[in-house]
Amino acid sequence: MDNIEISGFNYDDPVNITVKRYGETEKLRDSRDLSAKTIQIKKFAKPIFRFFLDGSKRTYKVDDVAYGSRVYPIVAGQIGVGCCERIEKEIHSKLLYNSIVLSLPEKACTTNRKTLFFNNLTAKLNQHSILQSRNLKIKKCLFYEDKNLQQGERYENLAIATIQDEMIEQEKKIVADLVMQNLLSEDAYLFKDGSLEYKTMAEGNYRDLSLIKSNYKRVVGVSKSFNPEKCIDEHGKSNAKYIVQLPLFHRTPAYLYESNLSKGIEGIVKFAIWYIRIREAKYTNSPFDGLVKVEKILVNEREQEKGLLSEEVDLISANIINERNPVCYGKDGRWANTLYPIYLTSRYIESKYIGSQHFLNLF
Q1: How buried is residue 181: exposed, middle or buried, by Cβ count under 10 Å (0-12/13-18/19+)?
Q2: In a 3-state reduction of DSSP, which class is residue 285?
Q3: Disulfide-capable partner of 159 in 103, 131, 135, 287 (CB 3.0 to 4.6 Å)?
Q4: Strand partners, 276
């Protein structure tokens, strides 16, 4: 029974980002210096970011099961999705969803009613004395596709993908909960760690981003890990050189990006995407350290046609710069890209996980 590690870089941008026009009202010819604005906000204004959202998962291969000539892994996961709130310069916990899930091959179900079968399996497992004695429950039994694997594919990856999708569903639920409580406003934005470009899913209450995009009017996604080579201009050339040469506290123009990945019933979801340098490159290990990618969903018709107001892009960018970590923490290789409230939110979520040895002993 092993903790599953997937090798390689884990970027937040799943596909190439092809930019064809501006995603903001001003047509900037070059990057914009936000140094003065960051100082102005520090001295005379409150931060616009009040809520901070992060999600993570830990996955473990706990067993194998054979059907015919194939052997399939059973993967267990701990999912933690948390939201913290800033109150008078202090970060407090606001919402937390902790859950245990299992991912099994769809072959385990011999009927056409897969959802019912796996729901019944979840209920049966939760009657087990080991779980009851520890006051624990499996939230859901997920299932992954049974198919002939291509070269380099692994069933473990398919199982982990279902757990990732469940984590994303919980992230969307927290956003919906904050909106239902009228907690998000122009003075209280939500800072979400990572991309907002959610793929359309087959099931779930929030599976179609095009139907719930109004929830994201005051939500900003910031990616610490992104591939600059995936930002492609209208001529098919990479913008990586331009992005890496950004001076400190400068931002690129905001680009309009149309996401087919998030396409749903109401059509393609449009984003404004831009990049900010929050750390001096000469103090980092790589010239791409100290850069973050910022995303905001274009919610209404005016934004989709004309882009975000450039004043809002500047305001968001300056506030992001002011959220930088004040110091480098330990051996974290991403310290130059880390934003302090997200660091605290991440630590809060991790503190609520069951220890790996304790968790594996459940199985």
Answers
A1: exposed
A2: coil
A3: 103
A4: 251, 292
Element housing 360 (H / E) = helix 356-360
Alpha-carbon distance of 42 to 292, in angstroms, equals: 20
Smallest CA-to-CA distance from 158 within 80, 102, 103, 78 is with 103
Strands (DSSP E) contained in 35-166 are: 49-67, 70-87, 90-105, 138-144
Helices and strands, number each (H, E), in the chain: 10, 15
User: Judging by DSSP bridges, how do beta strands 90-105 and 219-223 pair with one another?
Assistant: unpaired
Instruction: Output the DSSP codes for 313-352.
Output: HHHHHHHHHHTB-SS--TT-TTGGG-BHHHHHHHHHHHHT
- Provide the token pair at 172: 């969307």
pTM assigned to the model: 0.92
Strands 21-22, 255-264: parallel, antiparallel or unpaired by DSSP? antiparallel
Residue 11: pLDDT above 60?
Answer: no
How does pLDDT run across 226-283, given as a tens digit for each residue?
Answer: 877 777 766 667 788 889 999 999 999 999 999 999 999 999 999 999 999 999 888 7
Q: Which residues of 136-146 are buried (b: 16+ CB within 10 A; e: fewer)?
A: eebbbbbbbee
